[in-house]
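Bit of a strange request maybe. I'm writing a small parser for structure token strings and I need a real example to test against, not something I typed by hand. Could someone generate the tokens for this chain?
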Amino acid sequence: MVSSVAYPSALGVPCFLENDVRTAALGVQRYDAGAAIQHLAYVSIGTGIAAGLILQGRLYTGAHGMAGEIGHMIVEPNGRRCTCGARGCLETVAAGPAIARLGQEAVATGRETSLRHSQPLTAESVYRAAAAGDAVALEITERVGRHLGQALQGLVMTYDVERVILGGGVSHAGEVFLHPILRELESQRQASALAREMLAADMLCLLPPDYEAGLWGAIALAERGLRH
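Reply from user aminoacidic:
Good idea to test on real output. This should exercise your parser:
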């Protein structure tokens, strides 16, 4: 969605419109303001996957207002068809519905897992089972973490951000969600001197689930719009 400004006669006040994840990135910038970070990415993992980018201290939306749509990066060329029409997008293997589907497929094939008792079986169910040590759930979360870690590596290498902050509903699983991603990034650091330089061990963190990034971002969006 392209950013826009409108002055509806029904309201008589300026209105500012922006994509939800990019708006949240502005809120994350405010949350992280004490660190004076000028280049950061906020990545939301929920029903979809997308990034909001702050470059040189400003929200970056791209030529068509679509910057950061990493959920539609192709990671499995012959994979499942995505809602966008392509096959094997990141969302098809690492977004919330995909995680739930992987759990459902494991149950359907008769694998021994506590997930068979989860009704409904959701991404939250999978991470809860993984935290309890369920082998099938751990296999799924490792796969998801590997894909997300690789996508984050691509994001960092493309935009050279200083900080990556993860949010969205799936990230609320906390450490059991984060650790597989960190393991993938550490594997990349071990394999590449460039990765060791670009993927600092402390550059990735989770946004606290009680921080209202979208709300603060909307405030920042209005402040920015009224200044210009």
